[in-house]
Design goal:
3 helices, binds FE2/S2 (inorganic) cluster, about 120 residues
Length: about 120
Amino acid sequence: MGQYVRHVFVCTHGEYCPFDGSGEVHRLLKEQVAARGLKLTVRVNHSGCFNQCGNGPMVVVYPENVWYAGVTPEKARRILEEHIVGGRPVEDLIYRAPQGPNKNPVRMAEINAARKAAGRGPGGG
Ligand code: FES
């Protein structure tokens, strides 16, 4: 057993997930874990890229090693209640993809185009 019962990583430092709202997902999870008095048993961390760019926001929960993609604030609330607090992975939200890197080049191109239109390069926000 590690220092925490559950360890949650949110990709907030990759080049793509932040564009799709991972910062808000991280903030919500962190805030709600604290509000429930779970800071001694659940750790929510910022993370770098999981190599699933364009499928984000990506969230991973350990020790179950369950991955979630496209996590909106609404989905984050379910993941919090059912998995992080309740201990049951949210079956219908689980990210099922082949092992290793799985990038979504279509979404990545959309994000890059939107950044370019806004005058910002990759990693700019
Ligand atoms: S930017 Fe989040 S998985 Fe790559």
